[in-house]
Amino acid sequence: MDIFDKIIAGEIPSYTVYEDEDVLAFLDISQVTPGHTLLVPKADVADIFDYTDDIAKKVLLKLPVVAAAVKASNPDITGINIQSNNGVSAGQTVRHSHWHIIPRFDDDNLNS
Length: 112
Ligand code: 5GP
Known about the structure:
Blueprint: H1 3-8, E1 16-19, E2 23-27, E3 37-41, H2 53-60, H3 63-72, E4 79-83, E5 99-104
Antiparallel strand pairs: 1-2, 2-3, 3-5, 4-5
Bound molecules: guanosine-5'-monophosphate (5GP).
Active site: 98
Protein name: HIT domain-containing protein
Keywords: Methyltransferase, Transferase
């Protein structure tokens, strides 16, 4: 059982941004910017290379839903980055597929 399975099971606390029968979105414990959220499938899928069409439909269709919820949480959000790291060489540290939804602010200096 990986750490995101434990969050999905409620064994580790997290702040839920969105949830339905297929996915959970919760605040990242280490916020790149305020509101940094992770969208994860509830199914135990390691990375994008494990995606079936069914998983892809269930997860990817939720990206705009969760992005809208994140944006609505703070009027100062002027943009959003969406990223998924797949494989250790790509920076993946948790072997349970996840999508980073990272709010951007006019003065966040992340581009510099
Ligand atoms: P990765 O590096 O695999 O792309 O992203 C994993 C993310 O999971 C990191 O941004 C990290 O901060 C987050 N994370 C790791 N452990 C926990 C946890 O226990 N709770 C929450 N909310 N996020 C976590």
